Amino acid sequence: MIDKQINSVAQAVADIKDGSTIMIGGFGEAGSPIELIHALIDQGAKNLTVVSNNTGSGHVGLAALINNKQVSKMICSFPKSANSKVFPELYKKGQIELELVPQGTLAERIRAGGAGIPAFYTATSVNTTLAEGKEIREFDGQIYVMEHGIKADYSLVKCKAGDRYGNLIYNKTARNFGPIMCTAAETSIVQAEKLLELGAIDPEHVVTPGIFVKRLIIVPNPAAESQLVSEDRRYP
Amino acid sequence: MIDKQINSVAQAVADIKDGSTIMIGGFGEAGSPIELIHALIDQGAKNLTVVSNNTGSGHVGLAALINNKQVSKMICSFPKSANSKVFPELYKKGQIELELVPQGTLAERIRAGGAGIPAFYTATSVNTTLAEGKEIREFDGQIYVMEHGIKADYSLVKCKAGDRYGNLIYNKTARNFGPIMCTAAETSIVQAEKLLELGAIDPEHVVTPGIFVKRLIIVPNPAAESQLVSEDRRYP
Amino acid sequence: MTSKGIVEGWDRAQMAQRAALDIQDGAYVNLGIGIPEMVAGFVPAGREVIYHTENGLLGMGPTPEPGQENQELINAGKKPVTAISGACYFHHADSFMMIRGRHIDVCVLGAMQVSKDGDLANWSTGAPDAIPAVGGAMDLVAGVKTIYVITQHITKKGDSKIVENCTYPLTGKGVVNRIYTNLAVIDVNQDGLMLRELAPGITLEFVKEKTDATLNIHPDLR
Amino acid sequence: MTSKGIVEGWDRAQMAQRAALDIQDGAYVNLGIGIPEMVAGFVPAGREVIYHTENGLLGMGPTPEPGQENQELINAGKKPVTAISGACYFHHADSFMMIRGRHIDVCVLGAMQVSKDGDLANWSTGAPDAIPAVGGAMDLVAGVKTIYVITQHITKKGDSKIVENCTYPLTGKGVVNRIYTNLAVIDVNQDGLMLRELAPGITLEFVKEKTDATLNIHPDLR
């Protein structure tokens, strides 16, 4: 029998090892799997490479993970946001590495990782400092840069609801990186607000097919990052 | 005001020129836009390069287009099927060119065309005759072949329903190549069985966003290719 | 020497049944056209297996009842199928992400030839007048984690389909993990072919005679 | 010489309004953060425009009423928005297919510098202690068919933002099609910069003085 449900967020992240590459969903707080990230803080794995569009806000969620010195490298497109304090501070001190990737290239590299594409060419970043050191190549008279697919050991993703096969649906623009990150990780770990019966999601409406999901944990009322930040909450 | 509806299949394909590259959706008869193909036969454009997974059945639809000598080259993965007679005959006579592409590579090349990716690497077809003459390259100790994105001048696609913005939904496995072909053509022409009011498709359930659709024609009761073939019908 | 037309060892259903024993609970499986399709019917009770068909369905169910066929719900062989509860539909690029991205656990395919190194030929005779047609075969062997082949051990003409080197054009090089024939179960590993099981009434000598490749014999040969 | 703090020519809203005149009926448009966001409010009546936000929404509507905000329905600037009837959601890879694949008609962006060749610098000062952050800017300028820039003509320090060559790190080379400043509308074409319009009360001489790049003057300069 297939049942991807895990009983606790602690159990869901228990086997993450030091040095792992971890993709973390979300665009700002929308889609950020805050309970899974906090479980990873409790778990304590260190020297992580984190792939995520941003670096978190305040002192909760991804920012707290970074603040806890568990992340040695960030791969992201926009490491500073309105309430982003932790990453900038560590970065200026040279205590965390940054690989800056244009947002669409980041998305495509993740999708390529999940699709078995080791590399592809894009016009994005050609003639900029972000293309330095990368292979440049002409196709049909236009210049492109070669970019590599990214895979991860784990991905932490948040969605609206899922079933025991791991089929997922998302909520509005909180979908963002979740579907592609599920495809690119050896072990994708998803927190959903609700468990649905098998068949409750119309087969035409499934966004992430269950094949891309390894573990599903139900977190019925996830915390809102902006709420925690406005209350100046800290984790742990 | 945005209204992508066209009043007749004839009008929908009227501007297709000789020598165009045309993607035609469908996997066998599922998703095959038979009324649009017949309109293209009436229209008469010649010397076409057609990108489609198969080559049609009997003497209707894509097979009829080929039989009418409008196609000089097929790019496809599986040019022979149970009732496929026209293409094999012309191919053996050397009257039509074939570029044989593995099915997944074909899908990814079309998706790349639509995504602004000029080329990518895949392990599919490495060490086979289909990789001959193509660039071979190693990434992380594994061998890959470089494949190019494909773009088309037009795509002809069938779906279940659409709205005036061109947002589309499909039916079951008839979805197949439709969504990616809409993205890869300069002008995508879609036949839908039903027109829906704007907003009738839940924004979470749209399969092809309207941005990828140029023309929408409502064909309420499309012919079933297998039915026509079993009746030995011919077009024109 | 086998007389033509006489079935030796396992019949088609039995070959499928034997292969089905190796499909694990929870596996995502893609079944090729022909005997491989029959595997689904023989997976032991208590195992839940999800079938993928590359034309855009995960959670393919059995053939529909007569009269219930839907020409827009078909498998990769273009035959009507059903969808189970918990199924999902997707487009071709997403479908082959599952294949190319190594998300499918097992693919069961037919073969024209399999070599001692696990090379597979199953798409073309290479005959100059043949219409070449590859479909998804090359994507499947390149991307799926485990490749099983089900095939008659010898052709209708009496030639071995298990060979030192394939003479037909390859589908993929070094891709096959296990071969189920009417005579035997053979693993492909680093050292070549390893005979694991014999069909009832089939002798080791007979299999060796019918195989145009060196066979290592597993110590626990059954 | 301009006194600091005195608004010259068009104000922010007027710059957005001027740019909005060039957004055609039926266009798919992506608006950057800041003044570009204001363009949506000024598109002339009778034109139906679809707004794309790269975090996964086509058919972005206006800011919600207070109390109606949803933190899972936001724009690329992470501010709450709404979705119009006929909108759709999609993931990031699909969203950037629209951008990279040249499906978006117009993108309106802010700028730190624009060169005579249409090079754009708008993501980094290149200062050694700055946190570099690029977001989707490089994808947008590389993929969108037409790039409009809205920017103050000069910096708060009094430096021209329209330059012969950008000194800040580039977002893209030769990507800008038209520039709307508080002083003028300037096209970028094969021969460099072409002055098309002057803001009310602004003289040609004044614009030339405030521009650190050669300006060609359109015969129909308004």
Description:
The complex is a heterotetramer, with 2 copies of chain A (about 240 residues) and 2 copies of chain C (about 220 residues). Chain A has 7 helices and 11 strands. With about 240 residues, chain A is of the alpha/beta class. Chain A has a single domain (about 10-120, about 150-230), classed as Glutaconate Coenzyme A-transferase, CATH 3.40.1080.10. The longest helix of chain A is centred in the middle third of the chain and has 13 residues, at about 105-115. Chain A starts with 8 loop residues before the first helix and ends in a 6-residue tail after the last helix. Chain C has one domain: Glutaconate Coenzyme A-transferase (3-Layer(aba) Sandwich). In chain C, about 15% of the residues lie in helices and about 25% in strands. Chain C has a 10-stranded mixed beta sheet, sandwiched between helices. A 3-stranded mixed beta sheet of chain C has the order 7-6-9, with no helix packed on it. Classes of the chains: A alpha/beta (about 240), C alpha/beta (about 220). The interface of A and D includes residues 98, 104, 105, 127 and 179 of A.
Spatial gap, N to C terminus of chain C: 23 Å
CATH fold-level label of chain C:
Glutaconate Coenzyme A-transferase
Mean residue pLDDT of chain A = 97
Kindly report the greatest chain-chain contact and the residue count on each side: A-D, 51 and 38 residues
CA-CA gap between termini of chain A: 37 Å
Q: What is the subunit organization of this protein?
A: heterotetramer
Largest sheet of chain A: 8 strands, mixed
Categorize the overall geometry of chain A. globular
Query: What would CATH call the homologous superfamily of chain C?
Result: Glutaconate Coenzyme A-transferase
Overall pLDDT of chain C, averaged?
95
Helix count of chain A? 7
The secondary-structure class of chain A comes to: alpha/beta
Summarize the biggest pleated sheet of chain C. Answer: 10 strands, mixed
Q: Proportion of β residues of chain A?
A: 25-35%
CATH topology of chain A: Glutaconate Coenzyme A-transferase
Instruction: Give the percentage of residues in beta strands of chain C.
Output: 25-35%
Instruction: Please state the overall shape of chain C, judged from the principal axes of the Cα atoms.
Output: globular
